[in-house]
Every structure is written in structure tokens, then in C-alpha cells.
Amino acid sequence: MTTLSRRTLLGLGAATAAAITVPGCSGKSGPMRVSWYGPDPVTKALNKALDAWKSSGGAEYTAESAPFDDYWDKLATQTSGNNAPDVLRMSMSYFSDYAGRSALKDLGSLGIDTSGLDKDVAASGVADGKDYGIGQSSISYSMYVDEGAIKKAGGTVPAAGWTWEKFAEFARDYAGSVPGSFGSSDQAGNFQLFEVYARQHGTEMFSDDGGKLLTTKDTVQEWFQYWADLRTAKAAPPQNVSGETTAIEKSLIATGKSPLQFGWVQQVTFYQPLVKSPLAVLPVPQGKAGDLSGQFVKGLDLWCVSAASKHPEDAAKLIGFLLNDEKAIKAIGILLGVPPSKKARDLVSADAGSAGARAIKYVEDLAGKVGPSPKPWPKGYGELLTGFGRIAENIGLGKSNPAAGAQEFTEMAGKTLGQ
Amino acid sequence: MRRVLAHAGLTAGALIMLYPLLWMITASLRPNTEIFRHPGLIPEHPTLANYALGWSSTGTSFGIYLMNSLIICAAVVIGNLLTCSLTAYAFARLTFVGRKTLFALMLATIMLPGHVTLIAQYSIFRKLNWIDTFWPMIVPSFLATDAFFVFLMVQFIRSIPVELDDAARIDGCGAWGIYRRIILPLLSPALVTTAIFSFIWTWNNFFSQLIYLSTRTRLTVPVALRGFLDATGSSEWGALFAMSVVTLVPVVVVFVVFQRRILAGMAHTGLK
User: Fold this and answer.
1) Per-residue pLDDT reduced to its tens digit, B231-261
2) Domains, chain A, with CATH or none
3) What values do phi and psi take at A88, rounded to 5?
4) Touching check for A155 and chain B: CB below 8 Å?
5) Which residues partner with A279 through β-bridges?
6) How many percent of chain B have pLDDT more than 90?
7) Do A80 and B119 touch (CB under 8 A)?
């Protein structure tokens, strides 16, 4: 189960499916199927939005959901078995795999109203000139800061975040002044934070056609070294601690052992209930102070319609409804991320003191200051994502070192990309 | 003195083995925020809230998932007992054309990795319109597709003296009679082993249940348990542990009830 990647499964499945498909012998077409991944609150919210769709006279549907990891196993099997759901939630991590295998429908002619959406988000699902998906949310990478803990330790938090240099300094000071705690959790294996870092070094991470890694080996090595130094200085936790603190409830910020955590902006709402003082949402560290060009705002989760859908019109209408209808917007709130339109953000940000409102404000403040949003992540991104984490772990455990790890990663990228 | 030491050592070992289970049980009695904060076994503020939450928080009662799992498990156990024993009897005692080849083919299915057949199976079940029903889990077990159990029983039947068959034949039994009156009763240790392992493996079989079932009210226990965890959001650990404890109950009951027979069965079949 673990040795076979989902991508291989998807490819293998496509071949098998083609080999045994009997023409003219397809299953009956029931009502439209809607499928998504996410924790329980997401499922509840989407069911509520779908109820609104039904009571507004929308077409019949059935709903399916699964946790993130399981969702991809299931979707790969369904897609290969020619039984993909009509409307499906797609993550940018797997988007190119599916779009590149013609598993998704071009939404261009289906007339979904995206006029209210942020431009970067509306275009997030465009690949090879075709629109395979529509962004569900405007999100950006961010840093959550437990200001209460930092003030107690006598530190201050710069409103625009730190430079990497100042960040390391802060992490060392904090760890030094609060016994038993770390300045930051270890982010060496965080591929998505690394993308921001890589963009701060002047290039996109991937070439436009997705065939090549543009980020240099030196940058990768520098990154691994940066975190290795923080671990040596005890400003970041050793690997065995990091390995046990990946879940949100177990994270160092939730257990009060570090004042900093990184993640996509909307995830702050998952951390907030576990931390007593309000979490500030700040940009991630920068190369030059105040320069946010490494960061970007993007729709990282998309609504897509499967290529084999027998209900493309209804599917398109439903997507339009979820994006634009007031009741649907309110039901979803910021559970899928910061809403992708100004109208939706105004509708859901009523609760001014909440973590959600701070997430929305963060995204709105970033607009215009961040760099251009990158092309959809290339085919094989999912593999690089897990590979990067594994390499960082090996370095953390002392089985590898930053130079060897960087070499391994660039080689892996060479093999995985452009296939 | 030596016995005391041995006992102390064994008890310590058993406690270490049991620790994760005990931890899960006590964790299920803790509020969500305290689960990972305090090591140790004794909860500071014990509460049954997780059980209430887990039972109903998915919007569908957990009882429905348990019932679904029980239905599938019961059907698989019955299917495996009936058809695997029949198939094994045929392989072990009857002579027919292609017996050796078919036996080798059957063994080969044990060696095929599941992923190779997954998509093809999925396509077949889709064409039969069985997706999102229990049939993909149940029907194969009525076709003796679990080659492991067939093999187990073939080996067992081969150890039963053929003279018994001959005696039965003299008394007028046909092939069917021999199976029912001679083989089946003598096979009971292997049947018990098959029943237990069919039950436990099906009870824990996450993947095919994930792939084939979609509608909430048709989900089974392993799929529902995974629903409490999600890497992209907050996980309901308390509810997960509480429902895991609930999920263990049927397995423990099966073990307690059949415990002696399992041991007897293992002694006979030499299963690890």
C-alpha cells in the first residue's frame, strides 16, 4: 500500500480501465454526485450549503466525503474505474495529475459566474489554456504568532514579520529565555513554506511548463542548513520531537512549547481554539525586510467537474451556486479557506474578533504586495511534497546532511517532473 | 523463587504490551485539549463526553456504522465457511481434470498484490452497479475467493485419514455425504480459525470499504473512524479514541467466546 504512489495507481488504473472497458455497457446514471475532502466541520458546512441548493430548486444530488489522504486513494480508483463524482473538490497538489490525464472537464463553455472572484483565484485552474477548475478560496501562506507568550517572555513581534536572519535570532532568544520551549517548530520539511523561500531567491520553483525545477540545489541546501542550524542552537526542536507533534492538537504551539507555527492562512482557525491568547497572523519571514514578493495569493483548492460527468450543466450550476449564493457562502464560512470574492468575505467576516476575521484581513492586506501567483503545481507535485518532507526528516535524524539532501531532492525533481 | 521472577518478568512484559491499549482507553476519557498535554494514564478530569460526541457527531449514529460492519462481517464469515470448505474438499479429495493447475492458479492469487487487481475489480463491480452497496465486500466471499483459507483447509483435510472416506463410501456415502458427514465435522478447528480471522480481517478491512462505500449511512466502522482524523484540519482525537474503544468490544467478545477454540484450531493447523 505504501510503496505504490497514488500517481502510479492513477496511471495503472487508466491503463487497466482502457483495457477492459466494454463499449456500450456503462452503469446507469443516477443523480449528480458531489464529493469533497475535509474534516467533519467541512462536511457539515457543505451539507448545509447543499441543503440551500436543494431548497432553491437545484438538481438532485448525492454527497460523498472522506478525509484528505483517503480521498485521493478513492478518487484515483473512481477515476480509473470511470466512475468519478460529477462535482469534486480538487487540491492544487494533485490538480495537474488529473488535468493532464484528461480526467477533468473544461469549464470554459459552461458559463459559471466568476465575475466576483479575485482574478488570481479565478485563474488558478487554468492549464494549457483550458479552465479545469475554479478556486474555492483565496489563500496564502502565513505564520501564526502567540503574541501573549512572546510578550510574557519579554519579546516583541514585528507587525510585518521578520527577515529570516531576525527570525533565527528571535527563535534562539526565545528558546534561551523560556526554559523547556523552542522558538519555532521545525519547518525544514515544509515544502510549501519552502516555495516562498525559493521564490525569494529570484525564480519560480517550477518552469512554466512544469517540466523542470528552477530552484537551484544551493537554495535547497541553504534551506536545510538554515533549519539544521536552528536545531543545533536548540531554537527548533530535534527531529524526534517534531515527528510527534505534526497533528494540530499535538503541535508545539497548542501545547505551549513554541510561540510560532506556519500554515495556510485559514488553518489558524483550527489552532486558535487550542491557544489561550489570540493568534496574530503574519507574513512568513522574508529575504529583505518588508519584501513580500516571495509570497502569493492563490486558490489552492478548486471545484472541478469530472470529464466523464453525465450532468455537466447541473454540476456547473452547483459550482456557481456554492461560489455566489449568499446562503451557501454563509454556510461554508471560511472552512474551505478565505472566501475568493469580496462579497463573500464581507458576508462572513462579521465576527470581528475571531481568528477567521484575522485570516480574512491578512489576505486582504496582502493583496497588491505579494508576488505574481505561480502556475498550477506540476504533475508529480504530490510526490515531491512527500519526498521533500522525508529528506528533511532524514537530515533531522542525522542519516543525511543538507548537501546530500539537496542533491537527493534535485535528482528526485529531475526524475519526477516532465514525465 | 525462579517462578516468582519469571512471573514478575512476564507481568511487566504484558503491561508494556498493554500500555497503548490502556492509554487509548484513558485518553478516551479526557477532554480533547488534554489528551496530548499530559502523559500518564490517569485522566485529571475524566469525562464520558467523548463517547456521546463520537456516537453522534458525524450526523449519523455510530450504531449504524457498527451495524453495517456487523452485517458485512457476518456475511463474509458465512460465505468463507461454506465455500472455502467446499473448495478445499474438492482440491483435497476429488479427482478432476486440471486440479493441479487450478490449485496453482488459486495459490497465485494469494501472491498477487492487491493493487494490481483493484481497478479491474472496481470496474467489474461498477458494471454490475454494485458501487456503494455491500455486495463487493460480501459476494466474493461466497465464491471462495479467499485463497488463504482454502489453502488452510486443504492442508487440514489432507491430514484427515482417507480410510475414513473409504469407510463412509462402503456405508453408502457419496462425495457430498462424505463432505457433510465426515470432513466437515473433523474440519471444525480449521473452520473456527477461518471464522475468527474472517471476522477480524473484515472488521478491520479499511481500504475496500473506503473505495466501495460512499453514502454516509452505508459506511462501516473503519471508514467512520478515519473520518475523525483529517490532516488538513482539527482532528477529533477524543471521539476517535472513544469510538475505537467501542469498536474493540465486538472483537473482544468474539475472542473471549471462541478463545479456547482458537487455540485448539491453531494447535491443529499450525497457523502462526
Assistant:
1) 666 677 888 899 999 999 988 888 888 777 6
2) 30-138+298-363 (3.40.190.10), 141-295+380-416 (3.40.190.10)
3) -140, 150
4) no
5) A146
6) 58
7) yes
